[in-house]
Every structure is written in structure tokens, then in C-alpha cells.
Design brief:
- It contains 9 helices and 14 strands.
- Strand 3, helix 2 and strand 4 form a beta-alpha-beta unit.
- The strands form 4 sheets. It has a 6-stranded mixed β-sheet with strand order 4-3-2-1-5-6, sandwiched between helices. The protein has a 3-stranded antiparallel β-sheet with strand order 7-8-9, with no helix packed on it. Strands 11-12-14 form a 3-stranded antiparallel β-sheet, covered by helices on one side.
- The longest helix is centred in the middle third of the chain and has 26 residues.
- It is an alpha+beta fold.
Amino acid sequence: MTPTLMAGIPASNYSLYRRLRFSVGDPAAIIEFPPVGESGGGQSLLIIRDIEMARARQHARADVVYCPADFAPPGGLSGDRETATAQAVAQCLRRRSISAIVADRSLPLIYAHELNKANIVVTCDPEMGVLERRMKDSQEIAWLREAQAATEEAMRMACEMIGQAKARGDGVLMHEDQPLTAERVRLAIDIFLLARGYANPMSIVAGGPIGGDCHDHGHGQLRTGEPVIVDIFPRNRTTLYNGDCTRTVVHGAISDELAQMHRAVMEAKAAAIAAIKPGITGQAVYDATAAVILKH
């Protein structure tokens, strides 16, 4: 079997992060060496910046941890960290007399460049790691549940902030004696999640007709009787896993038109759930949902 390579910056290359379960803002590369013979086990070798080695040995999913200086080529390492890591990967493989390696789709080109210079053939496997990333393990499921719970807490806070506001005579919602705007709700969501260890991309708080423009983040004053779409999708700053939740909240009386829309959505959701079974495609579930919406 041919060794495999994943490389990049784990803090932004999420395929690599998932493999290592270790977030760092410096370049890293992990080489998976296959078993040798019938009894020899394989080995995963991580190359990472020297000041991160101790943390990596404690937290990263790797059998052994080295730094680029451990595999310095005869001409020395580049002063650029990413280039130096790529050079170290090439030298590591040369020392083991390896002439070919398989990489995933996220491999930075600098690694292929340095490996080619060392006459090591690099083959891209577009499916490497894809199925594994889709199938969440027990740790990932726990992290997703944690992120979703925090997201739903933020959603409850935002919906109650809107739903419990006071309506001014002209219908504008008031909160703490000031008009309640999309911007104020969004700020409250950001602060709520920041206090719980989450980075929050700009949430959607879209009131009235603005909510009809998909992914308009929303702006301006919110009004009684109008639907307000709230969409929150924060990321845990430690685990890097996301929650996601969208709700529509209405202050005051709910019109017959909105109630009809809600019934249509609930029926469509039930159709989607009923369509889900092993082997079904996302397109088929979408079609079942869309059919109900079109019927209404």
C-alpha cells in the first residue's frame, strides 16, 4: 500500500483538523504509513512547528510527532514555515525510500511542488477522507449536540426578546425604551454566544418583507404582527463544530395568512421526514418537500 498525506493549517483546513482533532494556526502534515508485513502495524507521523510539539503529543491523533528541523534537507529549511514543512515531508519520505504518495483534495500545492522536486510521485484521491468526514463518530456527535444546544438557547433568547417586546402605537417594537431593530437582536445573539465560547457569523434577523429575500441579513425596526426570520449558525471556538437553527417569530396576533404558511411548512417537514430512509438521496427528500409547498 502507498502512504497517504494530509497537510495544511488545521485551524482552516477542516479535513485535516478532523483527522488530527487538534487545532493550530501553523502548518502541519500527517503521513500515514501502511503496515509492514503481516505483523507490523502502520504508523501515523505528524510534522508540526517545534513550539507546538508538546501540545500535539498530548492532544493530536498521531502516533509520533516531529518538527521540520528533524527532517531538514541537506540545503537547509526555508524560512517560510509552510515551505519548510513541505520540505520536511519530502525529506522524511526520501529517508524511508518512498517514491510515491497519495494525498487528499485539500493538499496545498507547495507540498506537491516539494515532493515533485524530490522525485516523489503525488497522486490525488478525490474521495480520500470524504466518506469518513460525513460519518460522524461519537466525539463529533457529542460536539454537534453541544453546539446545537447552545444555538437553540440563543434562539430562545432572541425569539423571547422579540415576542415579549412592547408595541408602540405605530406598530414598531420597543425594548428597554428604544425601538427594537434587527441590529439590536443580532448584537444580543452575538454577545450571548460569545459568553458561551462561540464565534458567530452574522445572524439573519429579517423582519416583514425583508424575510422574503433569501439570506438578506435583515435591518431596521421590527414590527408587531410581522414574521421575523431568525437564523443562527455559530461555531464552537474550541471544537470548531457548528450549530444551526432557523425560526420564525411573530409578535402579537398571527394573521390567517401566516398560519396557513406555517401549516404548509409543517406538512412539508413531515413529508421530508417520511421520505428519509437508508439509500435515499438528498434530491429525493427535497422533491418530497417541494411537492407539498407547491401544493399549497
